[in-house]
Amino acid sequence: MRLKDQVALVTGGARGIGLGISKRLAGEGALTIIGDVRTELAEESAHSITSEGGQCVARHLDVLDSSNVDGVMSQIAAEFGKLDILVNNAGVHLVKPITDYTDGDWEHVMAVNARGPFFTMRAAARQMMKQRSGKIINIVTILTGTPFSSIYEASKHALMGLTKCLMYELAPYGITVNAISPGAVDTELLKKGIREKAASAGLEVQSIYDQIASTTPLGRLCTPEDVAGAVAFLASSDGDYITGELIHVTGGTFHQNLGRKQS
Ligand SMILES: NC(=O)c1ccc[n+]([C@@H]2O[C@H](COP(=O)([O-])OP(=O)(O)OC[C@H]3O[C@@H](n4cnc5c(N)ncnc54)[C@H](O)[C@@H]3O)[C@@H](O)[C@H]2O)c1
Questions:
Q1: Mean local confidence (pLDDT), 103-125
Q2: Among this protein's residues, is 152 annotated catalytic?
């Protein structure tokens, strides 16, 4: 119960990695707010966490809409008095060759993955600076480049850029800002990405899963729980002196990727 009496907001916490993070933060004692555009699913997920003894509520949160983001942040401050932990997890993935992407693809992926966390961090910073404390954790991706994911990678590099700048700006207020790079987690986002990559690269879906497993030194895919463990560490007092870092939770894939010769 390292996070007892803490208040945490997890964007995109209704399913996948975000749900794993929400379960873990609530399990560590934090009052956890799942903020997701899929409101019904967020409520079901919050209910499943409370039925296991955690404190969890759901809020409709669309990171594309800054007035919604600001409103949710004001409600959290009014209802719970503070925000200790913000996890920017909501994200979308779109796999295509550069020549097939539309203007709208760029706008959408950049807006959810980069502008959204900018909106949530701006709103959270206003509250956390008043408190003079806070932990911000951004879920990025392996930042070594991935073929057919150029907009997604660009959006996650943008989020890493925000992480590095805000680390400096918010440190004087006792706020840490870090990022986590998960390995491949078999969520809806990954399944869709693999289907799209198979179409773009002319590969079989199963061969892509096999390639991921065979190039992961630890020999298996990542899980939401693996990512959640790193989030809980950074959010707890064990992470108090860590800021501006990128932690790879990739089973060693990060290092393999640096030496990769083919897509
Ligand atoms: N799955 C992987 O292999 C993998 C690897 C590296 C990084 N990531 C990152 O991890 C994060 C979570 O991914 P996941 O695999 O769990 O995806 P997912 O699609 O299973 O879940 C994403 C969640 O974000 C929510 N969301 C989407 N748009 C939103 C918006 N505008 N406002 C609020 N919520 C919104 C969705 O409703 C969903 O609940 C993403 O940022 C993703 O880029 C995933």
A1: 98
A2: yes
In the CATH scheme, what is the homologous superfamily, with its name and number, of domain 7-257?
NAD(P)-binding Rossmann-like Domain (3.40.50.720)
pLDDT band of residue 259 (cuts 50, 70, 90) is low
**Residue-range domain boundaries for the chain:** 7-257
Instruction: Report how far ligand 1's centroid is from the alpha carbon of 17 (Å).
Output: 7
Q: Is the pLDDT of residue 220 over 60?
A: yes
Question: Measured between alpha carbons, how far is residue 231 from residues 22, 106, 247 in Å?
Answer: 10, 28, 10
User: CA–CA separation, 152 vs 35, rounded Å?
Assistant: 21
Flag whether pLDDT at 14 surpasses 70: yes
CA 109 to chain centre: 14
Determine whether 100 is exposed, middle or buried from the number of CB atoms within 10 Å of its CB (0-12, 13-18, 19+). exposed
Return the pLDDT at 201: 85
Distances (CA, A) of 211 to 62, 88, 218: 34, 28, 13
**In the chain, how many H helices and how many E strands?**
10, 7
Q: Is 178 in the pocket of ligand 1 (CB under 6 A)?
A: no
Q: Whose CA is nearest to atom 42 of ligand 1?
A: 91
Can you give the pLDDT at residue 257? 74
Q: Is the pTM of this model over 0.90?
A: yes
CA 7 to ligand 1 centroid distance, Å: 21
Does the CB atom of residue 89 touch ligand 1 within 6 A? yes
When pLDDT is averaged across residues 143-152 and rounded to a whole number, the result is: 92
